[in-house]
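pinning this so it doesn't scroll away 📌
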Amino acid sequence: MLAHVPVLLDEVVEMLSPRNGGVYFDGTFGGGGYTRSILESAKCTVVGCDRDQRVLCAANELREKYGNNFKFSHAKFSDVEQILKNYAIAKLDGIVLDLGVSNFQLNDPSRGFSFRHSGPLSMEMGLCRKSAMDIIHEYSEQQLADIIYEYGEERFSRKIAKNIKKNLEKIKNTEDFANIIRICVKKTGRTDPATKTFQAIRICVNEELVELKAILDLLPILLNPGGRVVVVSFHSLEDRIIKTHFKQLCDDKNCADHRFCLLTKKPLIPSRSEVLANPKSRSAKLRGICKV
């Protein structure tokens, strides 16, 4: 099994409330932590999905253990309609998404997600059209600045973009890229100056916010009455999108057949003990919604 600790596991499963005979969609399968717990909590079916083909080993393990109660697709979760069609599933009783980067992605230098390891400037989760290296070479200075500002909320975005384009020939790997960024941003506190820019480029490479908005738009037609959606996010951009979309679904008075109610007025966050055991969980926020 891939080394990844699922965040807010007990809270996610409790909020999802799996029932016997239900059908659930784990759109970010990863190491299979959520899926396993869902299958253990009720006699149900879970359709797992992940864009990273390196999770196939973990998926095969669960397939052997749970048989027809577990199905898996190597795909992006925005393709959920086609995935369900492939398995002749009409509607879902629940959806779970963990929007964080998996530990096995972050800790693998060959994936290029982290500035803590020197590796190829990739940042691809899987099924991507461009790598990080493609983006810094193909996008204009203004486009890079916009991406870094919008997706990284980095106030030095223009200075960073200018320095990236100026030093393209010097950027061969993640370490080079991080050093080019660090020249432009003064370090404050414990946060590495490259953090926000790495986040921004990663989001762009994987079209993460586009993916998120796509599946949120589909919720009314994906769920059975009583169906629940539980989403764990790790930065403010994602959380704002989820919060806004959930509120719009609950406030929509024009669709009597598509009424929703919030399961969380405020997001749930990890306990102190979970953060101590898994420091990467500290920024996690869990929100839930239910189709009435």
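📌 and the second one:
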Amino acid sequence: MFRHIGTKYFFSSILAVVLGLGLCCGGCSMGTSSTTDKPQGTETKAKVPGVAIPRRSPDVKYSVPQGVSILMYHMIGDMKNNAAVMTKENLERQMKYLKDHDYHPITIEELYGYVANGDPLPDKPVCITFDDGYIDTYTIVYPMMKKYNFPWTLFLITDDVEKSYQRMTWDQLKEMAESGDVTIANHTLSHPKLHNLKTREEKENEIIGASKALKYRLGIDTAWLAYPYGDYDDEVIDICKKAGIKMAVTTDAGRVHVGSYPYELKRVYIGNDISMARFVERLNKDNYSPV
């Protein structure tokens, strides 16, 4: 039932409520840093199997860069006469350079947002990718990226898991998938030159079969693929689209930009024959020097 109250008491009560709300709102905003430069969803969030979580300071500034280098690595170790195999020392030197010079490695998910939608990225972004699934990816790369707190991407050949002492086990991959440090993505079942396969069914088996293996073994739903040898054709792209692959990377040299075709993304080769000066150049220039 409505009850009459005196006018003086009524306005006093209203004033008290207004003051109280003001103090409350002021208290909520005190000591809180502005996040206007940080897009939503980049803070630490719940882990999803095989999806890297970007963990960055809230002070990191975001903008839409002119281009992004997707660094392409393979095996890490000491192997003579194979420049594609990086030494651990050279990899450490490069990762330390990124850290010391305020580069911000991004996830493949963030890269897709940039390419497809023009989403902002942290200052000086770079995307780190490793192909195949060698044991050194677990023993060397995985702890090193943890050390520097860098998200990264592994494109895995699923049929090669546990194939030899040089390859990772499913248990090791499961540990990595559950860490929140690395995105694990599709590199086909057996690493063939896809356009050389005779039938569409064979191509589908390589792409869809690898995605099914990642789901069955690790609980991963992947939307990313690296073409073996950078080899593909229009039919392969059509298969990718229908299989739920939203973005695929090649071995073609170059950087990516807003609006780059997401099924033909270029990457930046990094091998043991790349000096530090050339490494730095490849982080920042579209027309970098060839090997």
